[in-house]
C-alpha cells in the first residue's frame, strides 16, 4: 500500500500539442487565457498536487524576445516554440490533413506530403528535447494524442530509463487503413518506446496490436495486452475517458430554462464543425424522419449547434457550405409560416447555457461517422436531471462500447437514424428514466478523475513480460510455410547463437544451442548455414559441425558440404591493404579500442571505450577506413572495414541457395534467416518476399526483418523447433544441378 501511494505521488510531465492556456497578442502584449476542455480540467489538479511540467505549444509564433509570463504558476510550464510555417505543416498539415482523416477511417480525405512529415518529425523532436530538459528520475512522462506520436522514441533515445506513457484521444484505425500511411512503421516505432499505451476502447487497442504484429512482426499477447518490442515489453490498455460529472450536473441544475426550447420538442446536435461528426448525414436523417412521419411536422425541431473549427482550411469551408445548403433545402421544403424544422447555430455556446440545452432537449442526436469517444454523449446524459431524454448514438463512436442503454445507429443509414428518432420521441417516461439512470450511474462512477487515476496507476506499475517464445508460436509462424519444402536455415553467430560479449573470443556456443543445431543438421529436409562477420576459419572453429555451411567475412568466403569453395574474386585486391589500415587504426590509441584483423576485412571495436570519447573516435575511424579505399559499415559497437565490391550477407545467402539448389531454388526451398546486427539488415532487405527473417535483440532501430525475437534464448527455441518439427515429404532433393 505504501509503495502504491508513493507511486501515485510521482511528478508528471504532460506533453500535449497545446499548453493549458491560449496565448493572444493584444494591445498590452501577450495575453494568456485558460484553455477550455476536459484534458486541462482533468490534469491541472494532478499537476498542482504532484508537481511536474506541462510542455506544449502556445498556439502562436513567439518572437525572439517574447517570453510568457509564468511567475506564480502552481506547476512548471515549458513552451515549445513553433514557427507559423512549421505549424502549417506540422499541425494543419501532417496532424490534421494526414493523421486525422486516416485515423477516423476516412482515408479518401488523407493527404500524404513528405514535407509535412519531415516537419512533423522535427517538431516532435523539439517536444522530446523539452521533455528531456524537464525530466528528473522518477517522473512519469505522459504524452498525449496524435500530434506527438514520434516523441516517445525520440525521448527514449536520450533517457533510456524514463517512464513514458502515451494516450491517444482519437480512434486507432484497422490495419488495412493504417498501412496506407507511407510512414506507418515510424509511428509504430515511436509509440512502442512507451511503457504504457492507452486507447479509449478495446477495439482501438486491438487494432494497434494487429498493426504491430502484422507490420513489425512483433510478438503480442492478446490475453494480457502486451507487445514484445525487442528486449522490452509494452503494456497496451483501454481507458475510456470520462467528464467532470459533478460540474455538468450542477450547471444543469442551476441553468435557467432554455430560450431555444419553445412548444416544440427538441432534437439536439452539438458538434465542432468537422467532417467526422456526420452533420450532413444527420440533417438528411432528420429530413427522412419528416418524410416517414408527417405528424412530427410543426411538433419537432432539430437544433444543430456547430462550433467553428479550422475555418481557414478549404475542406472545412466546403463542409460549412454543404451544411448551409442542406439546412436551406430542408427548411424550404417543410417550413411553415410559424415553424422551421431546423435551427442552425454556427457559433460556440457558453457552457452554462449549453448545460441547460442538454437538460431540456428531448433527444440528443450524436451521430459521428467516426469518433474516438465523443464527450457530447456523456455531457447530455449527465445533464438529464429533470424529465429524462433519450440518447441516439452512433455505433461508430467510442462511447458506444459502454453506453449500451443509448439507441445505437449507423450514421450512414438515414432510415435507421429516422426510426431511432421516432422511437426516442415516442418512448414512454418509464423506459426513458431507466435508460438515463443507468447511463448517469456509469458516467458518475467513471468520471474524468477515475480516468486519470486509472491511467497513471497503470503507468506506474511494474511491467509484465511475455512468456518465452514457444514451439506453438513457431508452428503458427512457420509450420505451413515450411510444410513439404526443404528448409534452408541461415543464422548469424555473435548476438544470435551466442550473447554479445566484450571480446569475440569469449562468445562460446552453449551446449543446448549446439544440440539444437545438431538436431537440425541430422534432418534430410533441413540445411543450416552460419553467416558471420568473423573470418571463415574462426566461425567454423567455434561451431565445429562439418555438416553445416559456413560463410565468413560477411559472405566473402563460403565453405560447406556439397558446395564448391567460394572466395570473392575481388578480394585479392584488398588482402594486402588491411594490414596497413589496421596499423592506421591502432595509431588512434584510444583506451578500450582495438582492431580485429580478418584477412580481407577488419573490424574496429570500441565497446570498451568511454561514452564521451566514442563519437569523435567513430568519425575518425570511419574517415581512415574510407580513405584507405574500404567501405565503412556500422555494427554492434564496431565499425566494419569491407571491400567496396557490392557483396554482403544477403548476396552470400543467394549464392549459397543457387549453388545448392539451382537457379529455381525459390520453387523448392523455404528460407529462414536470423540475425541481430546492422550487417544482417542487408540480408533482411534482399530476402524480403523470399524468406521469413528474424531480427534479434533490442528494438532501438527499425528493421527490415519479418519478425523480432528478444534474445538468444528465443533463437534457441526457434532452432529447437526447426529440428523437432513434424516431417513432411519434401518438394526438393537435397542437391540439384546448378
Q: In terms of per-residue confidence, which ranges show pLDDT below 50 for 5 or more consecutive residues?
A: 1-6, 731-738
What is the name of the CATH architecture of the largest domain?
3-Layer(aba) Sandwich
What is the fold-level CATH name, i.e. the topology of the largest domain?
Answer: Rossmann fold
User: Given this structure, which CATH class of the largest domain is correct?
Assistant: Alpha Beta
Main beta sheet strand tally, sense and closure: 9 strands, mixed
**C-alpha-based Rg, rounded:** 31 Å
Would you tell me the overall average pLDDT?
92
The number of distinct β-strands equals 29
Q: What gross morphology would you assign?
A: elongated
- Specify the oligomeric state: single chain
Structural key phrases:
738 residues, Rossmann fold, 4 domains, nine-stranded mixed beta sheet, 39% helix, disordered N terminus
Q: Can you characterise this structure?
A:
- There is one protein chain.
- This protein has 24 helices and 29 strands.
- It has a nine-stranded mixed sheet with strand order 5-4-1-6-7-8-11-10-9, with helices on both faces.
- The protein starts with a helix and ends in a 14-residue tail after the last helix.
- The chain has four domains: 2-238, Glycogen Phosphorylase B (Rossmann fold); 245-443, Rossmann fold (3-Layer(aba) Sandwich), CATH 3.40.50; 468-567 and 647-738, HAD superfamily/HAD-like (Rossmann fold, 3-Layer(aba) Sandwich), CATH 3.40.50; 569-645, Trehalose-6-phosphate phosphatase related protein, domain 2 (Alpha-Beta Plaits, 2-Layer Sandwich).
Amino acid at each position: 500500500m505504501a509503495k502504491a501511494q508513493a507511486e501515485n505521488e510521482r511528478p508528471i510531465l504532460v506533453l500535449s500539442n497545446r499548453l493549458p492556456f491560449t496565448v493572444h497578442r493584444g494591445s498590452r502584449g501577450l495575453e494568456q487565457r485558460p484553455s477550455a476542455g476536459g484534458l486541462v480540467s482533468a490534469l491541472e489538479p494532478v499537476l498542482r498536487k504532484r508537481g511536474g511540467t506541462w510542455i506544449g505549444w502556445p498556439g502562436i509564433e513567439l518572437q525572439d524576445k517574447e517570453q510568457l509570463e509564468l511567475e506564480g504558476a502552481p506547476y512548471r510550464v515549458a513552451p515549445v516554440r513553433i514557427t507559423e510555417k512549421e505549424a502549417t505543416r506540422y499541425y494543419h498539415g501532417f496532424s490534421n490533413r494526414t493523421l486525422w482523416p486516416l485515423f477516423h477511417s476516412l482515408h479518401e480525405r488523407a493527404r500524404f506530403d513528405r514535407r509535412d512529415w519531415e516537419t512533423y518529425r522535427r517538431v516532435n523532436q523539439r517536444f522530446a528535447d523539452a521533455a528531456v530538459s524537464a525530466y528528473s528520475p522518477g517522473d512519469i512522462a505522459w504524452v498525449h494524442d496524435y500530434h506527438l506520436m514520434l516523441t516517445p522514441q525520440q525521448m527514449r533515445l536520450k533517457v533510456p530509463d524514463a517512464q513514458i506513457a502515451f494516450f491517444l484521444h482519437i480512434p486507432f484505425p484497422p490495419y488495412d487503413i493504417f498501412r496506407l500511411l507511407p510512414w506507418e512503421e515510424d509511428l509504430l516505432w515511436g509509440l512502442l518506446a512507451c511503457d504504457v499505451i492507452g486507447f479509449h476502447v478495446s477495439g482501438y487497442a486491438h487494432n494497434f496490436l494487429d498493426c504491430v504484429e502484422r507490420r513489425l512482426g512483433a510478438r503480442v499477447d492478446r490475453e494480457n495486452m502486451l507487445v514484445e518490442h525487442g528486449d522490452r515489453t509494452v503494456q497496451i490498455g483501454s481507458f475510456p475517458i470520462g467528464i467532470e460529472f459533478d460540474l455538468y450536473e450542477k450547471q444543469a441544475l442551476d441553468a435557467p430554462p432554455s430560450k431555444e426550447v419553445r412548444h416544440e420538442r427538441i432534437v439536439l446536435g452539438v458538434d465542432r464543425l468537422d467532417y467526422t461528426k456526420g452533420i450532413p448525414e444527420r440533417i438528411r436523417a432528420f429530413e427522412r424522419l419528416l418524410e416517414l412521419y408527417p405528424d412530427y411536422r410543426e411538433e419537432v425541431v432539430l437544433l444543430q449547434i456547430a462550433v467553428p473549427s479550422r475555418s481557414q482550411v478549404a475542406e472545412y469551408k466546403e463542409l460549412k457550405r454543404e451544411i448551409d445548403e442542406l439546412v436551406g433545402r430542408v427548411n424550404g421544403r417543410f417550413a411553415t409560416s410559424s415553424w422551421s424544422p431546423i435551427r442552425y447555430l454556427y457559433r460556440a455556446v457558453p457552457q452554462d447555457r449549453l448545460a441547460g440545452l442538454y437538460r431540456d432537449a428531448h433527444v440528443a442526436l450524436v451521430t459521428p461517422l467516426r469518433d474516438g469517444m465523443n464527450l457530447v454523449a456523456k455531457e447530455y446524459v449527465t445533464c438529464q436531471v429533470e424529465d429524462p431524454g433519450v440518447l441516439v448514438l452512433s455505433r461508430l463512436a467510442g462511447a458506444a462500447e459502454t453506453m449500451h442503454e443509448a439507441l445505437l445507429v449507423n450514421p450512414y443509414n438515414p432510415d435507421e437514424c429516422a426510426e431511432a428518432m421516432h422511437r426516442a420521441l415516442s418512448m414512454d417516461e418509464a423506459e426513458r428514466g431507466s435508460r438515463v439512470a443507468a447511463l448517469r450511474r456509469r458516467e458518475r462512477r467513471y468520471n474524468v478523475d477515475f480516468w486519470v487515476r486509472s491511467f497513471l496507476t497503470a503507468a506506474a506499475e511494474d511491467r509484465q513480460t511475455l512468456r518465452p517464445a514457444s514451439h506453438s508460436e513457431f508452428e503458427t509462424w512457420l509450420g505451413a510455410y515450411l510444410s513439404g519444402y526443404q528448409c534452408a536455415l541461415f543464422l548469424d553467430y555473435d548476438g544470435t547463437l551466442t550473447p554479445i560479449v566484450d571480446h569475440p573470443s569469449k562468445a562460446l556456443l552453449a551446449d543446448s544451442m549446439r544440440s539444437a543445431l545438431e538436431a537440425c543438421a541430422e534432418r534430410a529436409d533441413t540445411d543450416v548455414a552460419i553467416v558471420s562477420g568473423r573470418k571463415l576459419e574462426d566461425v567454423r572453429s567455434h561451431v565445429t559441425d562439418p555438416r553445416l555451411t559456413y560463410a565468413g567475412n560477411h559472405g566473402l568466403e563460403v565453405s560447406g558440404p556439397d558446395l564448391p569453395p567460394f572466395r570473392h574474386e575481388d578480394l585479392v585486391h584488398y588482402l594486402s591493404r588491411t594490414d596497413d589500415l589496421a596499423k592506421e587504426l591502432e595509431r588512434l590509441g584510444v583506451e578500450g579500442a582495438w582492431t580485429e584483423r580478418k584477412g580481407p576485412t577488419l573490424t574496429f571495436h570500441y565497446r570498451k571505450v568511454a561514452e564521451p570519447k566514442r563519437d569523435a573516435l567513430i568519425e575518425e575511424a570511419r574517415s581512415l577506413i574510407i580513405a584507405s579505399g574500404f567501405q565503412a559499415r556500422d555494427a554492434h559497437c564496431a565499425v566494419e572495414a569491407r571491400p567496396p565490391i557490392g557483396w554482403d550477407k544477403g548476396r552470400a545467402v543467394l549464392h549459397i541457395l543457387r549453388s545448392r539448389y539451382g537457379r529455381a531454388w525459390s520453387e523448392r526451398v523455404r528460407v529462414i534467416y536470423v540475425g541481430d546486427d546492422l550487417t544482417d539488415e542487408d540480408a533482411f532487405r534482399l530476402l524480403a518476399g523470399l524468406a521469413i527473417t528474424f531480427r534479434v535483440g533490442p528494438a532501438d532501430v527499425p528493421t527490415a526483418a519479418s519478425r523480432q525475437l528478444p534474445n538468444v534464448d528465443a533463437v534457441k527455441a526457434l532452432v529447437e523447433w526447426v529440428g523437432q518439427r513434424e516431417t513432411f515429404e519434401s518438394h526438393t532433393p537435397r542437391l540439384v544441378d546448378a
